[in-house]
Every structure is written in C-alpha cells, then in structure tokens.
Amino acid sequence: MSMKAFFLFPGQGAQYTDMALDLLEEGGKEVKRLFEIASEICGQDMKILLKSDAETLKRTDISQPAITLANLAAAAFLGENGITASGCAGFSLGEYAALALSGVIGTEDCFRLVSERGKAMQAAADKIREKAPDGEAPGMAAIINLAPEKVEELINQLKKEGKAADLYAANFNSSRQTVVSGTARALAEAHAYFKEAGAKRVLPLAVAGPFHSPLMEEAARAFEKILEKTNFNRPALPFFSNVSGKLVLSGEEAKELALAHITSPVRWTEEEKNIANLASKEGFDLCLEVGPGKVLQGFWQDTGSALPCLAAGTAPDIKTLEAEKRK
Questions:
Q1: Which distant-in-sequence residues (6+ apart) come within 8 Å of 119 by Cβ?
Q2: Distance of alpha carbon 188 from alpha carbon 185, whole angstroms
Q3: What is the per-residue pLDDT across 272-320, written as a single tens digit (0 to 9) for each?
Q4: Which of 2, 44, 74, 261 has the greatest number of C-beta atoms within 10 Å?
C-alpha cells in the first residue's frame, strides 16, 4: 500500500491525561529526544506533566506545550515506522507542529514559542476573568448544526441589540460546526439565541480562554516580542495557514501569520478545501490526524472528500497504519 500522506495536527481541546506516553514507551530515539527537548525548554518533566488531570491540562499555558509534544511525538513515531509527511497543516495550536515539521521553525524554537505563547494567552484570559463582574472565565463554545453564515448573522444581530458585545466567530470547523469565543457573560447571553435559531447543541469547549478573537490582543502584543527573535524559513513541505486557508510561500509570510493567528479566526473549512485540491493534483493517498483525539477526522468527513483521513495519534493507530503500508 502506497502512503503519500498529508499530516493534520490537532489543537487545544484534544488533550487527555497520559496522551503520548505510549509513544514514549514504544518509540525510538527521536521520540525520546522530543520529550527531552520539551522538558528542558519548558522547565518541567513532560512525562509528569502529561499525567495531569483534565482541569490542569485545560490551562493554555499547560496544554500548548503538552499537545505540541504529543503531535510531534506522533509524527516522529510515524517516521520511525516508515511513514513521513508530504504536506502538513495544523488546526489552531496544531499549526505549530506543522511549522516545525515543514522546517519553517526549528524544534527547539517550536517548544519555546508554544511555551511563551501559552503563558501570554493564559495571562490575557486570567485578566479578562478578573475583570468579569461574576469572576467567571472566558472561553469558547461549539455551535452544532447551524450554518456558519447563520452564526455570524446572529452575532451581528445580538451586537446591534446591545447584547453579547464580546462574542466572536473564532473557528470555522465544518459546514455543521462553528466555534465562538467570548467572555462568560457573552457566551451565556448568546446561548439561547443559538438554540432558538436551530442549533442542535451549544457545547462549551475544554479550553482556558476566548482564543482566535480580538479579546486576545494583549497576548498578541506580548507574543510579538518573542516572535521577533525567532527565525522563520521557507516551508520545505506544502504548509497551509489557518489565517488565510492558503499555502504559505515564505518564512516572512509565516511569521506575519503566526502573529495574526492569535486574534484571527481559524478558517479550517477553506484550508481543507485547498488541501483537498492539492492532494488531488499531487496524488496524495490519505490524510492522517497526527496527535491526540479524532476531531479532525470528523471535520474532514464533513467535506465529502473521497480522500480518507485516518487516526495516527497513538502507538496502536500507527502500528496499524504501518502494517497496512507493508501489504
């Protein structure tokens, strides 16, 4: 079985206790090296961190380096089993694993960036919470079975009526799911309106802040100083941006998009369309969800693409793929 694969890396919300530890146990030198690099740069033993409970892993200063390690460890384990990427993209935070795999940034820089990015975003989210009258944390919610255009229309209508001022469309995940970001108050105000408009569910996400929205502007300003010190190279593999949904063609463009990424929506549906077009032209065999969870497989299925998207986030997943490759 041929396996010209496009790697898709998941983002925050995909985390779970003990993720990637099976990869460390069964993987080779490259997986172990990644754990050592991440532990050194983040200043904590990542083997212990990955055993954290769900509430701890939800913190963005914890989840960003943890998920990035899980993503890159899965990619390394795939490589050790003879499966390499011919292109890559990442959903939200997952874009940093894609930046590293495509050679735009080095591995050490990747962990340094997600560590500092996580701290800046957690600080911004904590400040929003401190200012909230009820002290409740800001966050994100997935609007299920409501067209993206309808979600945006409702947000605009609510703001015209003087409600949910701090609510934004943040992730365009699929034709059936749009994620919104906002303060706790804005999310609560909008909940009933989404349901009345026909949303099947309004599902709070396991994240610590109102990401990919203007509410993260303070985090972007803090992160910009870190980005300025980092070298970004031209992608060595086809690499797509969440901000534009398009191929990134230079290191300069990649750096500009990395800054905009914090406050801009994730245009995943546009990105998937462009990935599918490239896959058709270049003869890709499949997409792989390289990291924890199976959310991206669901989003890909919603595109209707004939190109399969398979799980590649655990040792058993990858061993199954390797066995298929040998047939």
A1: 61
A2: 5
A3: 999 999 999 999 999 999 999 999 999 999 999 999 999 999 999 999 9
A4: 74
Residue 212 annotated to the active site: yes
Residue 240 bridge partners (DSSP)? 247
Q: Which residues contact 280 (CB under 8 A, 6 or more apart)?
A: 307
The neighbour count for residue 5, using CB atoms within 10 Å, is 24
Domain spanning 5-126+215-326: which CATH class is it, in words? alpha beta
Superfamily covering domain 138-207: Malonyl-CoA ACP transacylase, ACP-binding (3.30.70.250)
Q: Tell me which of 39, 102, 115, 212 is the catalytic residue.
A: 212
Mean pLDDT of the chain: 96
Rounded average pLDDT over 140-162: 96
Distance CA 265, CA 261 (A): 7
Domain spans in the chain, listed from the N-terminal domain onward:
5-126+215-326, 138-207
Residue 1: is its pLDDT beyond 60?
A: no
For residue 92, indicate whether it is catalytic: yes
Specify the DSSP class assigned to residue 234.
P
CA distance 321 to 37: 27
Nearest 5°: phi and psi at 7? -90, 130
Q: Model pTM greater than 0.85?
A: yes
Catalytic member of 92, 174, 213, 264: 92
